[in-house]
Design goal:
54% of the residues lie in helices and 15% in strands.
Length: 78
């Protein structure tokens, strides 16, 4: 986590506060541009901190949430 860019850390903590969000919702909640959120998601996926699922509402979208590893990291901050 320490080596991640600030945008990835922000996205991580937004996901910690919400169960799961789409990329658009992450962008709205974090106030980051969509492109920056995409980069942050990629960074978080590389360290297995988040997991991706297909949205039940719209199969064209993906929903992001903390993985088991991400949850353990999040719990270490509390």
């Amino acid at each position: 986590m320490k080596d991640l860019p600030p945008s990835a850390k922000l996205v991580f903590f937004v996901l910690k506060e919400h169960d799961s969000l789409t990329q658009k919702q992450l962008s709205e909640e974090s106030l980051l541009p969509s492109r920056t959120v995409r980069y942050a998601i990629t960074q978080l996926q590389e360290i297995d901190a988040i997991e991706t699922q297909v949205s039940f509402r719209d199969a064209r979208q993906q929903v992001y949430s903390l993985s088991e590893t991400g949850t353990e990291v999040a719990n270490s901050f509390t």
